[in-house]
What does this fold into?
Amino acid sequence: MITLKDLPVEEYYLPGNAACSGCASALSTRIALKILGPKTIVVIPACCASVIQGYYPKSPSKVPIMNTAFAATAATASGIVAGLEVKGRKGITVMGWAGDGGTADIGIQALSGAAERNEDFIYICYDNEAYMNTGTQSSSATPRGAKTTTAVMGKGERKKDVPEIMIAHDLPYVATACAAYPLDFAEKVSKAMKLKGLKYIHLLSPCPPGWRFPTEKMVEVGKAAVMTGAWILYEWEGGKYTLTGPSKGLIDKAKRRPLKEYLAMQGRFSKIPEAEVEALQRDVDSKWEAMKKKLGA
It folds into this structure.
């Protein structure tokens, strides 16, 4: 298990970048690169991360970054992996770092193709649950009931379960993570780094401006997502599900905090009808019942 003392002192993603205050994605990129180290190539599509990594010729990143089209994260990563192989370059990790819009929507075809081929790279979706870089429009990863600029009364559809879609591709490793639990995330990046083939990590990335909460509350909101059961931390490897972090103790519904506590922390769920809150709570409980079956609990 990775501890704070295990994280390298060396920084590969420097402060002073163009991220919003309280940005979970910037923090998590920093953690991921501490684990992956200097022999890493990052692929970023059009998204918040393409702004955070800076405008040419300046960048906070101390590793190479390839900016690519919105739909092309997995395709570009596949090409880099092939190029490294042809050149005989070994020991270099390729990581795709894309938002939910570029993963669950625009880029899912390239990701599915790369998964079918079992390309040898890590794909991390930092999920801030909307198209934040272009104005907080709904994506298929936006949860039901959340207000966005394209769903001003609240989105009507459920959140797409991308980790389960990737599990259906029978990958070597699939995991969920949350920016509020950086050591759990670091452990999963470390595990993915050591495996061959395509590894997928879906990272919940609370967004202060998009979710409408104070910037200093990012960790608190992320922890509430997990402790209410709205976001389950787990790994899938070799056909087996394993709960991780605080989620290990939340199978019993009585141990989970009420979902309304999490919703009340975010302006995007303001004035949501009580009946909708109850429906969302049922969705959470249903997802946990399904997880219990997967675990054989």
Remarks:
- The longest strand covers residues 93-99.
- DSSP finds eleven helices and eight strands in the chain.
- Strands lie at 40-44, 65-67, 93-99, 122-127, 173-178, 199-204, 234-237, 240-243.
